[in-house]
Amino acid sequence: VVAWGGETNDPPVYGKVYLAIKPASGLTLSDATKTFIKDTVLANRNVVSVTPEVTDPDYLYVTVDTTIKYDSTSTTLTAASIESLLTNTVYQYGQTELGSFSDQFRYSPLLKKIDETESSIESSLTTVKLRRTFTPTLNVATSYTLKYSNKIPTVNGIPQISSTQFSHFDDNGTLRTNCELQDANGILQVFRTSGSDRIIVANNVGTVTYNSGNVALTTFKPTSITDGTSNVSVTVTLDSNDITPLREQILLISNNDISITMIDTGGTGQTTAVTSTTTSTTATETTSTSSSSY
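RE: above sequence
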């Protein structure tokens, strides 16, 4: 459980105190349980002038993309077997080191675990990013605030924000499919690709505050989600490889966010790219549907 006063919110909400509660199993409490805690457990304990609000934790997902150089002549294991071991290493790091309030992601300890996974591994190059998922209202221009709470770098001409795909009308009123989000000098744009070119569909659908890590969609109006779900995932590049959650935020590593590329330096010299999924069971991701955040 983590609690904080509404006056520390952005924007401030005076007269309220918030409690984010992570259940013993699963990711969120049911609405009935939240109501019971508020109206029964807290009713006789709170100050009359202060209203308690029970909320869900704010989950953010660390994505891990690792390229491994290994020598196949120094091991009896196949590339697929080593890849499976590496996937489990990353997944287990998330299970043991993350998942609670204030748990920070530390880059160096994960790298050490990766390099020590199997004796044939010579080196690794790992990139981490931060992803969160929200549920947009289709066909309605709506505002959404996505707080990453870690600094996003600014690199001229290189977008630091990416997303899963959706359909969206362009600025001339034509419906475009397979669209994505990108940033350009602090402005959020919707684009589609034609060959290797990026074509702007909507020139301004929000802003990015790089220093605070806030992504604010202000006129986002998708008509459908390409993968058939109701959610859009937005991933940001980070200024630091160490990630610190803010207050009610919790960091997780989903097994779908682990990507391993194997490069054999001693045998065939072949590269085997695999987007890894472990067989471990994780709870369903939570999504944000609110146009404001506490």
